Amino acid sequence: MADNRAFSYIKGSSAVANGTRGNLVLTAEGLEFQPDSGSKKISIPIEKIMDAAIEGTIRRRLCVLVYDSNARYYFSVSDQETWRDVISLAAGIYRKILGINPGSGKNSGGANQNPAPVRTQAPPPVTPPPPPKAAPSAQKTITPAPAPSKVTAASQPRKAAPTAIPQAPPQKSSPAQPQPAASTPQNTSKPAYTGPWPSGQDYEQSFQILKMSINHSLGKIDQWEVVKNSKTTGWYVYASGNYGSIYKVKADDSKYYAIKCFTRKSGSLNDRYTKISNFLSTKASNMDFLVHFRYYEEGIKTRKNPAFFFPLLKMEWIDGVTLNNFVKMNIGSPRVLKSISENLLLSVSKLQKVGAAHGDLSGDNIIIGSKGEIRLVDYDGIYIPDFKGQRATEMGHADFQHPKRTGETFASSLDNFSALIIRLSLLTLAEKPEMWEKYNQNDPDCLILRKKDFLDLNNSEAYGVMMKTRNKSVKRLGAMLEDYLSRGPLWDGASPHDILSL
Ligand SMILES: Nc1ncnc2c1ncn2[C@@H]1O[C@H](COP(=O)(O)OP(=O)(O)O)[C@@H](O)[C@H]1O
Ligand SMILES: [Mg+2]
């Protein structure tokens, strides 16, 4: 990729990826990140780039989505809007103008063409423009990638869509209450969807034309409103993580809901969410730190694939701030930090008592309300007794997880390690607030310790600074961490009760 970069250079700047500073360069060949440290570079060939978007609420990052694996790469860059547009445009030109199917091999003749002159030749969208109220802003006009040739239904005219949507009676009860999952009966004659899973960008377009996109079995969609994110200019998305994008709507009952649209395909989504929903409404019905939801197997359509409904979750909208933002806001208030970590451990303990674990406790999956109440969101990695003997479908945020965690690590003690990391970090920050800026570095995916510290605790600078304290609890928790790392990820000697007793 680097050989002819001098002739195909499009854009370059300094950037941070995986906590490492380096140089990000886009050429007509693809995107390359070279860390300053000389460690392994990231290379994404142009034909593998599905799209680019900006993700995250507070620390917004450039996200590059990749075909095949649906993998995402995150970069912190200063001019992220320009980067997003340029990457999207370059990848779109590669696919459309050079006539190459997404994810297929590269057309060697086209990769070095200068993309700029063909900008105006992009074909018009396959669907009518959204109604004037929801007119897309300039940054939303990234032309959708062509639907894969296998998905023949995608070329059906959009007009036909509304009549095809079954009109179900409006829901009587609120999804905030315990309810079974609502899986729409599948039309067995319909071919299974095999194309690329929608990206955050695709769902963004769907929310521009909400009434045409959401399955009317969710309620009186005509009376729904999308609530735009006031923190972003012209975007609907509120937050996005590894598995989905979150949107806010005001539904026909005048309540606010979070809609989670999935950006990664998972074969077992329907079964898992049905079981989780049942669990929440039975064994965990008294746990107010959990968020009840309704799962819709056929929930939302995208412009690229107007004949298919993709699944979604509809859940109570949780007002509050994520743990990382909460720490940032309360970094000078030791009592607040201690009490939040205690509340969290008590919640984890309650979950364990009914044989469950959240599975991905992290800086953005814990929301703290105005009265300090804890709410856990994101149940993609949850363990419940029904899942005994199964493998985990995700590994959680690496900087909150035991480095030896694998798919087999799936039991009710799954949260012990992350609970210890959060307690240790928050008690340390209560003593040494200056460590936040130095070791968090505005990274929403970690607190002050990272996976690299867990892998080599004796040489970890952050751990070394942590342990230079007179605070006995911090010292004991640090020793417990050392002990834990020498054991397996499901060690039951570090239960929330054990952690709180130190
Ligand atoms: N019910 C909700 N109310 C408000 N914000 C939410 C809700 N659910 C999730 N979020 C926010 O959206 C972010 C992304 O959602 P999440 O379910 O964690 O997606 P992912 O699986 O991609 O990480 C969360 O980190 C959280 O900040
Ligand atoms: Mg999450």
Description:
The longest helix has 20 residues, at 334-353. The N and C termini lie far apart (53 Å). By secondary structure, this protein is α+β, with helices and mostly antiparallel strands. The radius of gyration is 23 Å and the shape is globular. It has three domains: 5-118, PH-domain like (Roll); 132-186 and 194-316, 2-Layer Sandwich (Phosphorylase Kinase, domain 1), CATH 3.30.200.20; 321-501, Transferase(Phosphotransferase), domain 1. Strands 8, 9, 10, 11, 12 and 13 form a six-stranded antiparallel sheet that branches. It has 14 helices and 16 strands. A hairpin with a 5-residue loop joins strand 5 (49-55) and strand 6 (61-66). Helix 8 packs antiparallel against helix 9 (416-431). The chain has helices spanning 5-8, 80-96, 161-164, 200-208, 210-213, 269-281, 323-329, 334-353, 416-431, 434-440, 451-455, 461-467, 472-485, 496-501, and strands spanning 9-17, 20-27, 30-35, 42-45, 49-55, 61-66, 72-75, 225-227, 239-240, 244-250, 256-262, 293-300, 310-316, 321-322, 366-368, 374-376. Adenosine-5'-diphosphate binds next to strand 9, strand 10, strand 11 and strand 13.
Q: Can you tell me the number of structural domains?
A: 3
CATH architectural name of the largest domain: Orthogonal Bundle
Bound ligand species: adenosine-5'-diphosphate, magnesium ion
Task: Tell me how many strands there are.
Answer: 16
CATH superfamily of the largest domain: Transferase(Phosphotransferase) domain 1
Radius of gyration of CA atoms, rounded to a whole number: 23 Å
Unreliable runs: 1-5, 102-181, 183-188
**What is the 3D shape?**
globular
